[in-house]
UniProtKB/TrEMBL annotation:
<keyword id="KW-1133">Transmembrane helix</keyword>
<feature type="transmembrane region" description="Helical">
    <location>
        <begin position="467"/>
        <end position="485"/>
    </location>
</feature>
<keyword id="KW-0732">Signal</keyword>
<feature type="transmembrane region" description="Helical">
    <location>
        <begin position="436"/>
        <end position="455"/>
    </location>
</feature>
<keyword id="KW-0472">Membrane</keyword>
<protein>
    <submittedName>
        <fullName>Uncharacterized protein</fullName>
    </submittedName>
</protein>
<feature type="signal peptide">
    <location>
        <begin position="1"/>
        <end position="17"/>
    </location>
</feature>
<keyword id="KW-0812">Transmembrane</keyword>
Length: 531
């Protein structure tokens, strides 16, 4: 037993060194570290002060460029004590699941610690809908024939025929299979339902990004906005080429089809997602070395100089995400040479379905071509692809709100109230979980203590079991084993191996015991007996 415990201890001690390792990181000196630095990102006076059209153009461009989700310097903050796997050294991407709020603050070249830093607090999460019964807003949808056309145009956007502008909003987008630029050869229809009231949700124009009016009571981080999306798509069997129609093979919905919504649009199968999003703006204490924030207090951003800028509305993350899902209608092309040779600027309506396709790598991954080189999509958008697209929309809008979607250091501004960290070698968890080593050392220590408590206070026959004591204890063994005393000294191997292994009483029945080498149970000494 003692051997097993010692082996356990000897194994555990070296493993303690594997519970930690040193890596390149950052250390900070709050008493004498470097103060002040340049930050990239919006502050309190500039958060609501920007052009609506430029904001929308940058968001669309960023979302379809394939780099959305990358923070300018990789600095992300969560609540203190959160177990989110953040990496201070290599930086972080915006997570796909931000059920626990994350704080987006201006970014520096290295982590920093500061009090009262302005930033955007956001929370979001998107899940695939596996049954139409999971919808709570779109289950109140109306037939398309009951909708009135307020702004159909080339967008194919229909609005609900309801006079109750204070209730949840449902917007239907229709797309016909048109030839021309960016032709994916798929008919599609999409319905977006949101808990934002219609009167507020429709408050966005070509020059005004989605936001709240000054009269609105803006929700906070604990008041999530629900967005439900149902996407119908038709799987074509052929595409139109220069030689006429050519047969193609396009995969339909392979998983999580909403069977209850099948047939609502001709020959189109449906998939769906539900997203929750909330936000707030304000100040918080940040610790870049721990990637945590604390003491968040909400505020209303003020414009620089107190001036009111035309077309400016209070920006919020959850409102803008829903607006962008249905109102990303304008696509600006600059310096286009027209057929008449005139150079000018043309505003084209954005194909909302093309935006869905290109928001992730789905469009390029699923692109196929015919024998003559015409391109077509090899699959409709699957449910998981729709979820990835909606998450990309959340990422893109958050980065635009806080950082204008850029990593350009020329847009930095100086903040004298931050303490920057410096590169250093720091300790981080190793390859062996410390709980494993702790359990081994605890078992070793507990076992040793139990053995000590059991045997420390027992009477001992001799201080050491050396050769001399073996000789003395073996003198009285003549009647027990056939070993002569001389064999103990000469060490005859077989005879020595036949010796008993315990020391005990050779005269159990007598009043005076005899100490010697014994074999078998019941030979231990008794305190009330003389020897």
């Amino acid at each position: 037993m003692l051997t097993i415990l010692n082996i356990l201890g000897f194994i555990a001690w070296p493993l303690t060194g594997l519970t930690m390792q040193t890596v390149d990181g950052f250390a900070i000196d709050l008493r004498g570290g470097p103060r002040g630095g340049n930050l990239l990102g919006r502050n309190e006076t500039s958060f609501n002060q920007r052009s609506g059209q430029d904001f929308l153009d940058r968001e669309t461009s960023g979302r379809t460029s394939g780099v959305v989700g990358q923070l300018p310097r990789g600095q992300l903050y969560t609540e203190e004590g959160s177990k989110a796997p953040l990496n201070v050294t290599s930086g972080n991407m915006l997570p796909d699941d931000a059920t626990i709020p994350i704080f987006l603050a201006p970014q520096a070249d290295s982590p920093f610690v500061a009090k009262r830093v302005f930033g955007l607090l956001i929370s979001y999460n998107c899940t695939v809908v596996k049954s139409a019964s999971e919808f709570t807003i779109l289950n109140k949808r109306q037939n398309v024939t009951d909708f009135r056309n307020r702004d159909l145009g080339r967008n194919g956007i229909l609005y609900p025929a309801t006079e109750d502008d204070s209730g949840p909003s449902i917007v239907t987008l229709l797309r016909t299979n048109q030839t021309g630029l960016r032709q994916p050869y798929l008919n599609a229809s999409m319905e977006v339902g949101t808990s934002i009231p219609w009167s507020n949700f429709s408050y966005s124009t070509r020059f005004r990004y989605g936001g709240y009016t000054e009269m609105d009571e803006i929700p906070g981080i604990n008041e999530p906005v629900l967005m439900e999306v149902a996407l119908w798509q038709q799987r074509p069997s052929s595409v139109l080429t220069a030689r006429g129609y050519v047969n193609v093979t396009v995969r339909g919905v392979e998983k999580n089809e909403l069977v209850g919504l099948r047939g609502l649009y001709s020959d189109q199968a449906a998939v769906g997602c539900r997203c929750f999003a909330s936000s707030d703006v304000g100040f918080a204490d940040v610790d870049g070395v721990k990637s945590s924030y604390s003491n968040f207090t909400s505020t209303i951003p003020k414009l620089r100089g107190g001036n009111v800028v035309e077309y400016i509305t209070p920006l919020r993350f959850e409102h803008g995400v829903v607006n962008r899902a249905v109102s990303a209608r304008y696509w600006t092309l600059n310096t286009i040479t027209l057929s008449q040779g005139i150079i000018g600027r043309i505003d084209l309506f954005t194909d909302w379905y093309y935006n869905l396709l290109t928001s992730t790598g789905f469009f390029w991954r699923e692109q196929r071509n015919t024998e003559t080189g015409e391109f077509f999509l090899g699959s409709v958008i699957q449910a998981e692809d729709l979820r990835a697209t909606l998450l990309r929309l959340h990422h893109s809008y958050a980065l635009q709100l806080m950082y204008d979607g850029t990593i350009d250091t020329s847009l930095s501004w100086s903040n004298p109230n931050i303490t920057l960290a410096t590169p250093a070698r720091v300790l981080v968890p190793g390859v062996v979980p410390p709980e494993v080593v702790l359990a081994m050392l605890a078992a070793w220590a507990f076992g040793i203590m139990v053995l000590a408590a059991l045997y420390q206070f027992r009477r001992r026959w001799t201080e050491k079991l050396n050769t001399f004591n073996m000789f003395m204890l073996g003198l009285g063994m003549g009647g027990v084993v056939n070993v002569a005393p001389g064999d103990l000294v000469r060490g005859t191997k077989k005879k020595l191996e036949s010796l008993p292994g315990t020391i005990g009483d050779l005269n159990l029945g007598g009043q005076v015991g005899v100490i010697g080498l014994t074999r078998g149970p019941g030979t231990v000494a008794r305190r009330n007996k003389r020897y």
